Amino acid sequence: MNIADALAHHVRARPEQAAVLAGERVLRYGELDGAVRRWAAHLLACGARRGEVMGVALRDSIEHLLALYAGARLGAVLLPMDWRWTEAEKVAVAGHFGARLVLAEPDAPALPGHACLAVDEAFLAACDAAPEDTDFPEGAGCAAMPLLLSLSSGTTGRPKGPVLTHGQLLARFWTHWIDIGLNSRQTYLSATPLYFGGGRSFAMSQLFSGGTVVLFPPPFRPHELVAEAERRGATAAFLVPTQFRRLLDLPDGALEPLRRMRLLLSSGAPLHPWERRAIRDRICAGFHEYYGSTEGGGVSLLKPGDVDRHEDSVGRPVFGVEVAILDDEDRPMPAGGVGRIAYRGPGVCGGFFRDPDADAEAFRGGWYLPGDLASVNEAGFVFLKGRRKDMIIRGGANIYPAEVEAVLLGDPALSDAAVLGWPSQELGEEVAAFVVPRPGAAPQPEELVARCAARLAPYKVPRGVFVVAELPRNSAGKVLKTELAARLPPREASRGGDRR
After folding, report:
1. Within 13 Å of residue 3, how many CA atoms lie on the same side as its CB?
2. In this structure, are residues 174 and 200 in contact, taking their beta carbons and an 8 Å threshold?
3. Most buried pick, 11, 73, 215, 242, via CB within 10 A?
4. Residue 51 pLDDT more than 90?
5. Is residue 185 a contact partner of residue 232, using CB atoms and an 8 Å limit?
6. Cα(446)–Cα(219) distance, rounded to whole angstroms?
7. What does DSSP assign to residue 466?
8. pLDDT digits (tens, 9 = 90+) for 39-50
9. Mean pLDDT confidence for 428-456
10. Which of 172, 173, 195 is nearest to 83 (CA)?
């Protein structure tokens, strides 16, 4: 089906229920389907076409959600674009994917070579006046229709756009309902950007199923998020690790409203074991960690009851997803072996937008390989070992950064750590660690090196530990190790245990 088909049902089933809350604004289900149809009709009049790419560079607003569903309604291929990007970044991405037009904020500069539609008062008035009875693609024939180019990398280099169909996005919604319980009975606090894959898909899933979406976009302070959850009676939310870490800095009493929630989700980057326990015990007993990718959607889920027994795992595969661990010859590995994780399922995209080279690199006989190293135990729990490109090879020996990071983070003086390769003329790479102290703590690099030496093989011990105020992260919470690598001095000019 066209994912917008569900909205007509909600007009009859729950017309008075709030579909979207944003500040003092309320959009009810009785209004949503008509608004989406009028938007779609006006976009057609402005040049949007079925099967052609339409950029969406809007703030996290009711209009952004209307644009997503209106694009789906008319059969366009949505290209999410961060409204905060520079003009050059937007032009590069819109040009690479051949966007026919781009929806933009009223104050955004025009994009040379592309038709921009400012979503201003005139645009909204035109949408209000547009017809609702335009003939749009609907029904079973829409399942294979392309819907979304969910960017899997930034705006530098050659961006990759996984092509997601209506049917594949709907299959991802299944896991939200079946595995997580995100459904029509939830009031979902949307506190991550709609441009971001997780934030967008969870919000769209809620509207498909008939739940309420509360828009509360960043930036905000942790106590403001808690206050909004209490004000709206939120029952579910999705946050990235950086946001959880800020919440953990609050005293227990300030977190009480979140403890009443049924579901708190984390995704985008792995959490450390102690963080998983602290979030479940201090913030919300319904805490779940969701491992996935823009290309494949959700892969595995760590449930609250599994945190104590499998604290360093990202859980077991979600509904409909198969996981395998492959060696360098694409052969399945036995339980416990470390190799490239591969998975397949109805929500995994079929390939990248006009990019056969990227397809050849990432897809193997129906399996998608995201580039992560992992192992799976006999019980089916997935254990991430880091990105394959981040694996350190020292004198021919493979070193997985996650293993060293786990040892470092066992020190109570540290709140965060990142391990990466340090170029070495003699051995190819050495191990370097960047660590973030807890407030008031003063960890000594020499002591941290000694801690690792007592728990790891000699070749895995960091040859340099660098104390920093914070680790650079992207909007999804992933550590930007390329930025850390740029801070490393030449190996021969430094000594193990240096403090930088």
Report:
1. 34
2. no
3. 73
4. yes
5. no
6. 37
7. E
8. 999 999 999 999
9. 94
10. 195
Structure tokens at 135: 């003939």
- Residue where the block lists tokens 């470390």: 338
Tokens found for residue 432 = 């370097």
Give, as one character, the DSSP assignment of residue 357.
Answer: H
The residue-averaged pLDDT of 26-36 equals 98
Q: How far apart are CA 284 and CA 190, in angstroms?
A: 17
Residue 478 has pLDDT above 90, yes or no: no
Residues 302 and 275: beta-carbon distance below 8 Å: no
Taking only the tens place, the pLDDT of each residue in 57-74 is 999 999 999 999 999 999
Cα 75 to Cα 67: distance, rounded to the nearest angstrom: 12
- CA-CA distance, 305 to 292, in Å (whole number)? 20
Please report, for the chain, how many H helices and E strands are present, in that order.
15, 26
Beta-carbon neighbour count of residue 121 at 10 Å? 9
**Could you report the per-residue pLDDT of 287-318, keeping only the tens digit for each?**
999 999 888 889 999 999 999 999 889 999 99
Q: Is the pLDDT of residue 156 over 50?
A: no
Buried b (16+ CB within 10 A) or exposed e, 142-170: beebbbbbbbbeebeeebbbbbbbbbbbb
Coil, strand or helix at 190: strand
Residue of 70, 58, 60, 1 whose CA lies nearest to 33:
70
Query: How far apart, in Å, are the Cα atoms of 493 and each of 33, 414, 424?
Result: 64, 26, 11
Per-residue b or e along 337-350, where b marks 16 or more CB atoms closer than 10 Å to that residue's CB: ebbbbbbbbebbbb
